[in-house]
Amino acid sequence: MTKRDIITIGIGVAVVTVLLAAPPETTPHLPGDSTHARFRAIAHEQGKKAAEKFCKNCHGKAGMEFSKDHPDPNRCLFCHKLTPQ
Ligand code: HEC
Ligand code: HEC
């Protein structure tokens, strides 16, 4: 083993440690219900941007406001993963 190998292994161990120490994901996924199923299909067929156009037809409207600590609601599917939880 050269010094370089040891450094490479050291960096690898450090990266894995950081990844394992990351907090669990808390952002809710796109729900797997019938309301959202068609957006999942659109995202798979035409891309996430095409699906995201529909989200604000409901979300953000009166009675369905975003919580006050919700981040800037754009590119929904960048944060809300498609796979149901
Ligand atoms: C037809 C209206 C409608 C549209 C369009 C819609 N949603 Fe929803 N969404 C709802 C309703 C109603 C709920 C709350 C009940 C539920 O969980 O299904 C909800 C809940 C959610 C939740 C919260 C899940 C949780 O665990 O708290 C997320 C995230 C979400 N929607 C994302 C999206 C995204 C992203 C889009 C666009 C791709 C979208 N929604 C489009 C009606 C809609
Ligand atoms: C930068 C990341 C990010 C983006 C972009 C984003 N969200 Fe969220 N969203 C979150 C996080 C984190 C939470 C959970 C924290 C909370 O409860 O506010 C959340 C929670 C939600 C909830 C649960 C109720 C609420 O308001 O907390 C809904 C519904 C939702 N998002 C819909 C959407 C829709 C629709 C879009 C696009 C118009 C969107 N989000 C864009 C990160 C994001």
Short summary of the structure?
The protein has one domain (25-85). The protein is built from 4 helices and no strands.
Molecular structure report:
The protein is an all-alpha fold and 85 residues long. It has one domain (25-85). 48% of the residues lie in helices and 0% in strands. It has 4 helices and no strands. The chain has helices spanning 3-21, 34-46, 48-52, 76-79. The longest helix has 19 residues, at 3-21. The protein is elongated and about 60 Å long. The N and C termini lie far apart (44 Å). The model has no long low-confidence stretch (mean pLDDT 91). Bound molecules: heme C (2 copies). One heme C (HEC) binds next to helix 2, helix 3 and helix 4.
Mean pLDDT: 91
% residues in beta strands: under 5%
Run of helices and strands: HHHH
- Low-pLDDT parts are none
Number of domains: 1
